[in-house]
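Record minuted for everyone:
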Amino acid sequence: MLFRRLFFLAAFVLASPTLAQDADVMRAGPLDNGKMWLFENPPVEYLAETYDLRPDAAWFERARLAALRLPGCSASFVSRDGLVATNHHCVRGSVVSVGRSGETLLDDGFFARSLDEERPVEGLYVDQLVQITDVTDRVNEALAAAQTDAERAEARSTVIDEIEAEMATEDGVTVQVVSLYNGGLYSAYTFRRYDDLRMVAAPEEQLGFFGGDPDNFTYPRYALDFAFLRVYGPDGQPLDTSDFHFPWSVEGVSPGDLIFVIGNPGSTDRGDTSAQLEWRRDVQVPALLEFLGGRIAAIDAYLEEHPDEEGMRNQRFGLSNAQKAYRGREDALTNEVIMSRRRDFERQFRQAIDSDPTLRSEYGGLINRMATIQREKREIAHEFSAFAAMTNSNYSSSTFRRGFFAAQLLTMQDAGASPEAMAELEVQLRGVADLDWDLDQMYLAAQLRQFQRFLEPGIVNPILGGRTPAAAAEAIIRSSQLSSGVGATKVLNGNRLRAEDPIVALVLAILPRFNDFQSASAGLNEQEAEVARRLGQARFAVYGTAVPPDATFSPRFTDGVVRGYEYNGTVAPPNTTFFGLYDRNASFGQDSEWALPEAWLPAPPDLDRSTPLNFVSTSDTIGGNSGSPAVDRDLRLVGLNFDRMIEGLSRDYIYFADRGRNVMVDARAVLEALDNVYDLDRVVMELRTGSLVETEAEADTMR
């Protein structure tokens, strides 16, 4: 307990070191594990000591209820009438989905000029965290009787399902039991789900993703990455959110200001041991970069022939975003400062366990056991790389996936599998949707290149038959009866599934190796999860809530200050302006990633180009925080988080206040664009007043 108190107090008086200046840079710092704080355990003393801020329970409740979780992203209520703000890139697919014949909403944007014009978004929802319940004791009781890793995994899954079912007692409520500290703590989060969402406003994609991939994960930035939705209640009217929303700030922020980013950070690995990080560095990240590079190349080739495919543009964006992210992770994992600090934290952690007889008897040896598991995982590294994302439904050949299910069907048939198991696989085979013929070939060729690189020639050469992967892919798809959904249906209905079909033969050639890999990987993953769970309990026993748990795509808040930084021998400002937007356009031209849409050229006469556009802070954010509200100490919304710098991708594994920044759209820029470019006065007035304005005519009377 004394160790925990001393560790927590150190966090008050020490800042994460500046890499270039601190002589002890290779040693672990008190905030290396970050500042993704839990609402159930807010660091009240830390906030008081660091910022002279003492938020009460009402402050935390309002912050929690105004923040929302959007699938894959974050959002927030920003008016009294259900208006929701998030990033454009978080709802890019929804913008496409509400489009009507002849509309190109990614190119032109969408702006509902009256309440009646707000368009329903099918399938989209937001979740609001309304209750948090500690269920750690109940989960641990269920695990106590389990004897093996598999039994513990089954017991954990069963008790969590029971808790979630018991607590979800009313319509419109969903419950998620979240494992924190790798199982050191379990919280049951009760969410109210709102699924009647309407599209209100979204700028052109060219503004939302201004600068494209070259600017992604960089700063200075000039992106207008915002969008507005509205939640409607069961009565079909805009939801009353009078008691829980973030008022929109018209004053914005200044350098040095405290802000909080409230959202749902997706996943971090700060609790990993050094051996786990080394496995990620040497095996996982290179394999995923290989997969991403192959699929991006396939989509680029496809888009050269089909440039108007908006859906593929979205997929390409997602892959390129992931590729840049993994390159940043690769850079972090090969950075000796970062790895040394993680090893030093592990050394301190091990010492804390070994110095306490009770902790040593319970948790001693776990770090060594984790290292042994990582060594065993390295023995199947080639298979991991060959089969990475092999049957991903978004980025793999539809013909290959049909062949995969078909080969499994034939194998199970030979083994005398039950009709029920066979029927389930047949449903999966029939459910594979067709891809465009050209894209299907490109994806299959990319998969064959993975096999060629990571599997031995004795397996791959017979598949290729002396052909290039591209030529083999074309020949296989042209001659396979499973290259279309119609063909697959005929084969299944006629009971004519044969091992000789080219795509089935391909899968059968790699299936024994794949099955062996799956079996070995599943066993090692179960062992790793159990050791990680116990290490999480040990960390919680040593440090308590002084160290926040890894991100879990559940609600968190993080503090930071608005601050520029040094880079490339110069200084990046705390904020950029619309002047910079136009400068980038003028410097690179209309045929570049910095092209401006028609509505922006020439600059509208009333547009104040000195308005802050993007700004940066030291807040601890990660993927999943996209769309998160950035609020001041009075919970006024000052920005929307949309990115972090590539240097900040090290935050998957460690937090440095001065390594990278998170990047936000300034609230003032959103108002300026809505008012003087898009002329959407009714939304401007709603943001300024907090109350619904139904039509543009009504907004005009309020000016």
User: Anything to note?
Assistant: Residues 129-194 form one domain. The first helix runs from residue 2 to 13.
